[in-house]
Amino acid sequence: MAKNKMMGGSCACAMLAAAVACAAFGSTDKTSDPKFVFLNTKTSSFWRTATSNVVTLPVRYPDGATTATLTVVGSSWSMTTNPPAGFFDLILPEPSSPETEDVYDLTLSFNDGTVRSAKLGLIQGLMPDAEGATRCVIPEGRRNWRKIHRHAVLPIPYGVESFSVTVDGQEVASDSGLDGAKGWYALDGVGIGSNASISFTLGGVSYFANLLSGDSGLQLLFK
Amino acid sequence: MKTQIRMLTILAAACGFANAAAHAADIDRVIVRQQWPWSTDIEVEYMLSGVTSPVNIHVQAYNGSQELPAEQLEDAISGDLYGIAHDGVGLLTIDPVKAFGTDSVVLPNFKVKLTLSDSAANVNEVIYKIFDLATGDCTDVSRADILNGKYGAYETDYGKIGEGYNTTLKDVLIWTGVTNNIEYKTTKLVMRKIPANGVETKIGGFDWQTVGKANAAVRTVSFTNDYYMSVFEFTEGQFLTLVTNTPNSTITYRRTQFTNGVERYIRPMNIPDYVSRSRLAYWPTESAYGKGPFPDNRTSVIGNLRAQTGLVGFDLPTEAVWEYACRAGTTNDCYSGLNLKNINEYKLVARCNANSGNPTAQNYDKPAITDLLPSEGGSAIVGTYRPNAWGLYDMLGNLAEYCLDHYQADVSAYTGPDPWGPVPDGGSSTFRVGRGSSYYLDYSFGNCSYRQNLYSNSAASPILGVRLCLTVF
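The joint structure predicted for all components is written out below.
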């Protein structure tokens, strides 16, 4: 601020006024869309959903940390690696069928003692012809889900503050006290021919989705 | 931290409406994302188009309609903020925990507003050079690189380095983060640009030991070239990296002397073992400072550095070059802009006998070296103390810095452009000038104009080191 201190008060005001006038005349600005931002680094344990088996994870080393260890544990697959600072492409086993869908426990630990963990649900991927749509799956038979013993799984985007689920016109689940994402919601008893919908609030904005039945499962369309 | 640069931008805009509206750039979209839980960092992506001259990005952050105080955001944001000279995608990173001072809340409606303005004219000026001593490769670092946080922490307000610190320098920009990376103290050499071309200034006369004497005559000098000074004293780690990687180097590694050799590789190398005692005669500078010829000499540190980098401008600084760089826009005893008042103030900027564990310390607090931590006694790890306004560390205290000039008591004749002290015949003279005092001496010697008469062929001394200079011809 040495330069600032050298200016007289009236001079500074005059120049500042001129600058403001200039800025108003010559500046260009743009505002982003609102975004839900998490600061709660210690107590939150949010889920993430992935629609591709390649997940890019940012790896930010805390001050003082020099090495990191990433451990990924799923029901039938696990791996450990030492990612460098930057971005790490986590390549999960590619689902060959809806039944191979899995939930993974991710742990990123640093040699300074910092540990970050999260759960990652991998679903089969975005429908190629329906941007903004993702697919829920209906496990068949007696497949033993490691994390979720239900028939259908709704991915709930993180940041959701409240949601409700309706099946065939009847509300089967609701929660208005969420302070962040809950990841997936297990939906019981939904099969081919059922009509389900989900509504939720995210960043103060309400969203509504229909769950449409199909031969290969249910397609979730966000509106 | 960044207030001054922002003010400069505003002032530049205030100088004329035409300049303020000169850029035709536009931001097409702004996207905010956060990849929780792997990082709390908020990434802001923007698309810039129509750039015809460098622009700055001014960021305002909101939670809903409530704007966050600018000072909270300033220290938490980095990325493509200053001197953006081309169209394309820019990326900013905001550390929300740092910005909001808490990690216990969520922001349900976070958004940013980006505003364009013209960059200051010197925003893309190269002000640091980073030399890889293993390869000789050089990386230029511009003001924009520093301001964009590409190299870590920095400071634009010298008054924030210490209470009452001041300078007449304009556009202060100190890369403070350079002290945090051990590479810059061992395998790489960081040098700061000292704009001196055409500068006329006064040096000398502020040494209270010799004020009024010819030894410290106030004299007017000028410079015909800009130059770079290394931000740290040359370390043992840097020496080892250089001489073991320079092809055909004839220097063999010998352990330097330390009062305390713990973490020796990031402490300043003392030179008698390597340069003066047996190699003074081979110092390839006796006829070469800015004038040539520049023989390919690999028997000295400077010769190795020239060979490794291909730059003949490397040398020791002359006294005038050293003192101008040390003062950094000040005329007081100490480069902080303050006169030396008491030992406690001095101990914030330098290692002297009162904080080095030197048993010869008198009159002041004098911890025995055994009372200090292993890393604390003797010479200091480079970059331990506060820098001057050009971001040079340890210019006072630590090791006395060997200059190119051979010592002569009466310096009143050495004035005018690029003054350089007497040159002895055949390089056999035994005395050179040391500047900046050392950890062995009382703090009263640690001022910007104090000159030492150093017998360079004497037995190895642990108090004498070097700081490298690169002249831009």
